[in-house]
Amino acid sequence: MQATRRRWSVVAVFFFFMLLHQSDKLLISSLAVRIQETFQITKTQLGAVSTGALIVGAILYPIWGYLYDRFARPKLLALASFIWGATTWLNAIAPTYPVFLVTRASTGIDDSSYPGLYSLVADYFPPKVRGKIYGLLELTMPLGFLCGMVLAIGLGGLIGWRGVFYITGSLGIVLSAVIFFVVREVPRGQSEPELQGVTQTQVWRFSWKTAGGLFRKPSLILLFVQGFFGVFPWNVITAWFLYYLETERAYSETMLLVTMGLAVIVLAAGYPIGGALGDFFFKRSPRGRIIVAGTGVIIGALLLIVTLSIPIANQWGFLVALCLTALFIPFAAPNVLSTVYDVTEPEVRSTAVAVQYFIESAGAALSPLMAGFLADHFEEIIAGLRQLPPALSWMANLFAAGMPLQNAMLLICVTTWVLCAIFFILVGRLIPRDIAKLRRTMEERAALEKAEQQA
Question: I need a labelling partner for 404 at 20 to 30 A (CA). Which of 101, 125, 340, 341 fits?
Answer without folding.
Answer: 101
